[in-house]
Write a structure and sequence with these properties.
This protein is of the alpha/beta class and 294 residues long. It is built from twelve helices and six strands. It has helices at residues 4-22, 24-30, 78-83, 109-127, 139-150, 172-176, 186-189, 194-199, 204-210, 250-253, 263-266, 269-279, and strands spanning 61-64, 89-92, 132-137, 157-163, 220-225, 245-249.
Length: 294
């Protein structure tokens, strides 16, 4: 028999999704003071290369999708959430496999990090900023660490925020739990998917990445995890150790937040509020259950 918490997770997910749908008008009123920050932008969407960072938010935000995700679907809620708060927001596709459309993040992670390197340079050139902030979901919180550690990314990045990142690996059975949400994705597991192999706990990639410490100097790290993550297990393996690290458990902020691995990145406004705090810690406000209305 399912525990009451497991039984309520779908209900909680629907409630959070409803909040994400119903609260834009409330958020728009609350954010009216920040509208001037994006006056230079011709529209309110993201990937707007004419957007210039404001004094209040001087760094562009680059969103890094997770395994099987892409630059649009992963960010339909978080990207506008941040744009409405005055950020210049960008997202990329990475880890494409030949002949596999829509499902990305499947190529070798070190090569994906090279794609991130190129993309961050593109964003910095377009915006005129000297550094960017990175926000990643799942593999998108893990892969940038390779960029920071081995490709010189620490000189171009101020902060990395991970939403349910598998920083110390997971299992193929963990990934398999996501397959029902991605029709057709099961066939991919039967093909060559080095991006998945790199994320398996104990892989050569993870051994290299985590040798000598989880972090690099000069970058602020935030990890936002959920107790109900069914991919990153135990959920504490998402956490990082080192200076300038803040590990956050969603249920410490709102005990009734039942978000699992996908929800934390797709529509959980409690997690989004904590992302905003991580991007601008000098003006952070308390995150709690009422943050779904912020």
């Amino acid at each position: 028999m399912l525990s009451w918490k497991r039984a309520l997770r779908p209900v909680a997910a629907l409630l959070l999704a409803a909040c994400a749908t119903l609260t834009p008008s409330v958020a728009a009123q609350a954010d009216s003071a920040t509208e001037s920050a994006v006056d230079s932008a011709p529209h309110s969407g993201w990937n707007n290369y004419s957007c210039k960072p404001s004094a209040a938010h001087p760094r562009p935000v680059v969103l890094v999708h997770g395994t099987l995700g892409n630059s649009v679907d992963n960010w339909l809620a978080l990207a506008p959430y941040l744009v409405n708060r005055g950020y210049c927001v960008f997202s990329l596709d990475y880890g494409q496999l030949p002949g596999v459309p829509l499902f990305y993040g499947l190529g070798p992670i070190d090569k994906s990090a090279e794609q991130l390197d190129t993309y961050v340079d593109k964003v910095l050139t377009a915006t005129g900023a000297s550094k960017a902030d990175l926000v990643g979901h799942s593999q998108g919180g893990l892969m940038p660490r390779y960029y920071l550690k081995f490709l010189g990314g620490a000189d171009k990045v101020n902060a990395l925020v991970g939403l349910g990142p598998d920083n110390h690996g997971t299992t193929l059975s963990g990934f398999a739990k996501l397959l029902p949400y991605f029709p057709g994705a099961e066939d991919l597991l039967n093909a060559a998917t080095p991006g998945l192999a790199d994320q398996v706990a104990g892989s050569a990639f993870l051994t290299k990445l985590n040798a000598g410490g989880d972090t690099v100097p000069g970058v602020r790290y935030t990890v936002i995890a959920s107790r109900y993550d069914e991919v990153v297990t135990p959920y504490r393996t998402a956490y990082l150790e080192g200076p300038n690290v803040r590990n956050v458990l969603l249920q410490d902020l709102c005990a009734v937040d039942l978000s699992e691995h996908l929800a934390i990145g797709l529509f959980d406004r409690i997690a989004f509020h904590e992302v905003a705090n991580a991007l601008d810690p000098a003006h952070a406000t308390p995150t709690n259950c009422a943050s779904v209305f912020s």
